[in-house]
TrEMBL record:
<dbReference type="GO" id="GO:0005524">
    <property type="term" value="F:ATP binding"/>
</dbReference>
<dbReference type="InterPro" id="IPR001926">
    <property type="entry name" value="TrpB-like_PALP"/>
</dbReference>
<dbReference type="GO" id="GO:1901605">
    <property type="term" value="P:alpha-amino acid metabolic process"/>
</dbReference>
<keyword id="KW-0547">Nucleotide-binding</keyword>
<dbReference type="Pfam" id="PF13535">
    <property type="entry name" value="ATP-grasp_4"/>
</dbReference>
<keyword id="KW-0436">Ligase</keyword>
<dbReference type="GO" id="GO:0046872">
    <property type="term" value="F:metal ion binding"/>
</dbReference>
<keyword id="KW-0663">Pyridoxal phosphate</keyword>
<dbReference type="InterPro" id="IPR011761">
    <property type="entry name" value="ATP-grasp"/>
</dbReference>
<dbReference type="InterPro" id="IPR040570">
    <property type="entry name" value="LAL_C2"/>
</dbReference>
<dbReference type="Pfam" id="PF00291">
    <property type="entry name" value="PALP"/>
</dbReference>
<dbReference type="GO" id="GO:0016874">
    <property type="term" value="F:ligase activity"/>
</dbReference>
<dbReference type="InterPro" id="IPR036052">
    <property type="entry name" value="TrpB-like_PALP_sf"/>
</dbReference>
<dbReference type="InterPro" id="IPR052032">
    <property type="entry name" value="ATP-dep_AA_Ligase"/>
</dbReference>
<keyword id="KW-0067">ATP-binding</keyword>
<feature type="domain" description="ATP-grasp">
    <location>
        <begin position="455"/>
        <end position="650"/>
    </location>
</feature>
<protein>
    <submittedName>
        <fullName>Cysteine synthase A</fullName>
    </submittedName>
</protein>
Length: 757
């Protein structure tokens, strides 16, 4: 192609088919915009400047002023200087030495801001640009982020593609100002209305709803501001890559396709190849590769730069996970329009309380497609009405769960895995790890679930806890200090936990525990039993969620027990009535325990006793609390812990802890005699009591009831919320006294009424 002017050489860039192993039936092309004199933005600079000259907005010889740290600066310099204009470029310290050298060689004035303002580097640059414009009357600012001549410049690129290809299914392009992908897509859709547009952004860019991270290292895409030229309605799918992933992809582009390029091209290449792997046979995909690699020799292509910035410490995914549009991402992820496939949130079984069936509904409300894995759907009374797809499979087998999911949907569409059941915490963690999803480390979950391992880990870290011993059978019990507590190694809900006052009683309890080899879900129990010294003092639980490796404290819960023998909980109150220094000591002890266990991701429910020597850790559970404690926190603070856990597992922002408004509490309903329940009375009266928020009975007439020996023997609960602790206690006392259970005692001729307390 011959040109009469230098700027006539802009455009008509090469279109080359990429060799992608394994998919010869998919046509994947790279539009090498790096083949322009400088880069892709040469097109934008030429179109904007020529139109401004034609309209009279830019006079002959008038200055050009633009804000850019990359290829737009070079494009303006090229076109502006070639047409006889002085050129001022406003940039920031992230500009590379090669671009600076080129701008200087072309005779441009370069102005470098020294620091960010409240809007980041872009804001600081625009402030300086305004001052330069004021000092140069008649100067023209191309305004790449809002000038409609930016996206209009890419009609020529679209025309070039249509001249070469008979059909295009998908176009992939990096997004910075929004001009290239939006402009090209609009022009192509005039001929190809079904064209799918996929944008490529970077982690830490605000363009598609992510929080700003000005320290991100990628250049040429992403933004700290929302440019008007970005029309999000044009883009069907967006991908985010972190710095390591983008830079690694750029190196792969060189090694695999022999193209020495910048990180915008590398990111486009990574997404293009992933799409090609999943495309229908015969599909045509085009990726826009904006710039070459000479500007990146000291960054992307420098081993020293990688080492200095510790890039290998960042996550590196080989495929993205599907997330809702407002998810916060730290590694390769993608999102689609709301009317397309939702990312899947997989639940592995559930507890059998109301919170279990609330979890899928919460996930649905947050934009997910809930999928419920279970081996026995009939276990859950509300499952038929839950907004979740039920998949029956062996939830004790990792391969079976993976295969069941793969038969339902592409595994990359699974965005999160969780459970509300104590018994499936490890299974959920292992499934998340198998799928490469963020979740608590399986090893950390296993340490918490196995109380013997938990005790050993805390002892090694010097965390205050009761003295303990693991015994394989009753013969190992020996002469133990009494009173002591004997418990199963990996049960739930206080099952099998007993305070023993003699060694004989402790040995009997060990025999009772070891005689049971499976738990209530049919899973094999860990062998042996744990014997612990009895910690004297009031009991509390500490509710935290680990975010970014730091456990956040949401509540310290004051707990009351039916007795101090079987440790069945009678009720809870939030916030606990504690002095500030005592509350801090409890929170610090729990944080130390969580860090020792490696439990810094997601919800934890830690039980503590406040002894004369200070707080000691009784148990650490890698889950939300049961016993309706999350509901008490929601009533008292407005923060829904179940929602926060769902949000956290899915990568969505998590609410900060909030102060309590008054006091919230729960009392559990129970029967004091054993027999068959024939009737329940007084619920309506209890609900009418001042400050009472909820009265729930969880059993029906015909059930066999009696004094509870664990959490599963309770008959319901009353929840209240009052301005003061005294008012709360009175409301709970009155409401519980009003609820009565008619029980026909075993061996008796009639039934008698007993209160729920």
């Amino acid at each position: 192609m011959r040109g009469e002017r230098l700027i006539d050489a802009i455009g008509d860039t090469p279109l080359v088919r990429l060799g992608l192993p394994g998919r010869p039936d998919v046509r994947a092309y790279a539009k090498l915009e790096m083949g322009n004199l400088f880069a892709m933005k040469d097109r934008v600079a030429r179109n904007i400047i020529l139109r401004a000259r034609a309209s009279g907005e830019l006079a002959e010889g008038a200055p050009l002023v633009e804000s850019s740290s990359g290829t737009m600066a070079l494009g303006v310099a090229l076109v502006g200087r070639a047409l006889g204009h002085p050129v001022h470029i406003v940039t920031d310290p992230r500009i590379d030495a090669i671009t600076l050298a080129k701008l200087d060689a072309l005779g441009c004035a370069v102005h470098v801001v020294s620091h960010m303002d409240e809007r980041g580097w872009q804001g600081a640059r625009l402030a300086m640009l305004g001052r330069i414009m004021a000092e140069n009357p008649g100067a023209f600012w191309p305004r790449q982020y809002e000038n409609p001549d930016n996206p209009a410049a890419y009609r020529t690129l679209a025309d070039e593609l249509l001249a070469e290809l008979d059909h295009i299914d998908t176009i992939v392009g990096p997004v910075g100002s929004g001009g290239s992908l939006c402009g090209t897509t609009r022009a192509l859709r005039e001929t190809l209305p079904e064209l799918r547009a996929v944008g490529v952004d970077c982690v830490g860019s605000v363009l598609f709803g992510q929080p700003d991270w000005p320290q991100r290292l990628q250049s040429g895409l992403g933004n700290s501001m929302h440019p008007p030229n970005l029309d999000r309605t044009v883009i069907d799918e967006v991908h985010w890559l972190n710095d390591r992933e983008a830079f690694a992809a750029t190196r792969d582009l060189a090694r695999e396709q022999f193209l020495f390029a910048g990180n915008t091209s590398g990111s486009a290449y990574r997404v293009l190849t992933w799409l090609a792997e999943r495309a229908e046979p015969g599909a045509t995909i085009v990726g826009i590769f904006p710039d070459r690699g000479d500007r990146y020799v000291d960054t992307v292509h420098s081993e020293k730069f990688w080492a200095d910035r510790n890039l290998t410490a960042l996550p590196l995914r080989t495929s993205p996970r599907l997330v809702p549009p407002d998810a916060v991402v730290r590694e390769w992820a993608y999102s689609v329009r709301p009317d397309e496939n939702r990312p899947a949130f997989v639940f592995v079984e559930s507890n059998t309380t109301g919170t279990g069936m609330r979890a899928p509904a919460t996930a649905r409300r947050l934009g997910y497609r809930p999928v419920f894995l279970t081996d026995r759907p009939e276990r859950y009374l509300g499952l038929a009405d839950a907004p979740a797809e039920t998949v029956v499979c062996d939830t004790g087998d990792l391969a079976a769960m993976t295969d069941a999911l793969a038969g339902l949907l592409p595994l990359e569409q699974v965005s999160a895995v969780g459970t509300t059941s104590e018994f499936y915490l490890l299974a959920a963690a292992e499934l998340a790890a198998r799928l490469g999803l963020p979740a608590a480390a399986p090893a950390a979950v296993a340490r918490c679930r196995n109380k013997a391992e938990l005790r050993a880990t805390l002892a090694a870290a010097g965390v205050p806890q009761p003295e303990f011993a693991f015994v394989a059978d009753a013969e190992e019990i020996g002469a133990v200090p009494v009173p002591c507590v004997v418990k199963p190694v990996d049960e739930s809900g206080s099952t099998g936990v007993l305070r023993c006052t003699t060694a004989r009683e402790a040995a009997a309890q060990v025999r009772a525990i070891t005689a049971v080899t499976v738990n209530g879900r049919g899973q094999r129990r860990a062998p042996g039993a744990l014997v612990e010294s009895y910690a004297v003092g009031p009991e509390y639980s500490v509710e935290m969620i680990g975010v970014d490796g730091e456990p956040r404290l949401y509540a310290i819960v004051e707990k009351s027990l039916v007795d101090d023998v079987q440790f069945v909980e009678a009720g809870h109150v939030v916030p606990a009535d504690l002095a500030a220094d005592t509350a801090q000591a409890i929170a610090d002890t729990v944080r130390k325990a969580l860090l020792a266990l490696g439990m810094t991701h997601g919800a934890t429910h830690t039980e503590v006793r406040l002894t004369a020597a200070g707080p000691v850790v009784i148990e650490v559970n890698p889950r939300l609390a049961g016993g309706m404690i999350p509901e008490l926190v929601r009533v008292g603070t407005g923060v829904d812990l179940l929602e926060q856990q769902v949000r956290h597992l899915g990568g969505l922002p998590v609410a900060e802890p909030a102060p309590f408004d008054g006091h919230a509490g729960i009392r559990f309903l129970r029967a004091d005699v054993r027999g068959t329940l024939t009737a329940v009375d007084g619920v309506a009266e209890a609900e009418a009591e001042p400050f009472v928020r909820q009265v729930t009975v969880t059993v029906s007439p015909g059930a066999v009831v009696g004094p509870p020996t664990d959490a599963y023997g309770r008959l319901g609960y009353v929840i209240a919320h009052a301005p003061s602790r005294a008012e709360l206690d009175r409301a709970l006392d009155r409401a519980v006294a009003l609820v009565r259970f008619r029980v026909a005692a075993a061996g008796s001729a009639g039934a008698s009424w007993v209160s729920g307390s």
